[in-house]
Amino acid sequence: MSLPAIYFVRLEGRNKALHVGRLAEIYFNRGHRILIVVANEEMATSLDRYLWAFKKESFLPHVIHNSNEHCTEAIVVSTVVCNTNKADVLICVSPCPPSFFKDFQFIYDFAETYDSQLADTARERFRLYRQHGFDPQMEPSATNSRSEINTDDRPE
Predict the structure, then answer these.
(1) Which CATH number fits the domain that encloses residue 134?
(2) What total number of domains does the chain contain?
(3) Model pTM greater than 0.85?
(4) 152 falls within a domain
(5) How far is CA 15 from CA 50, 103, 127, 141, in A?
């Protein structure tokens, strides 16, 4: 099995949920299963609310699932670092250990450049991923609600 593709989305503002929603929508519409890992219940609930109202004209089905038991939903928001829905796309709202990455095809992390401490932490994760043999790539800057994440050149 080949190594997963890891992409860092550069955030110049506090709009991570917007990009999580866009990524989930893109990969869900392509038939992928998605796991979104968050740090705690509060973040899970907040993201859950956001995803239900993400777009007025479309529906993004998802569930909060915080256990190690199997889940059949295509999009799972979880505080547990466990691939319970057999996802091939991992969106790290909160950091995940590189040892967890092996089961995924695509992994997304975020570089919050609007905050120097968060940016330093993202740089550390970028280096850590390289130390574990991965080749993380930076996405273009995601500065406003109209900026799009480029997934066109990625395999289905």
Answers:
(1) 3.40.50.10110
(2) 1
(3) yes
(4) no
(5) 11, 27, 24, 12
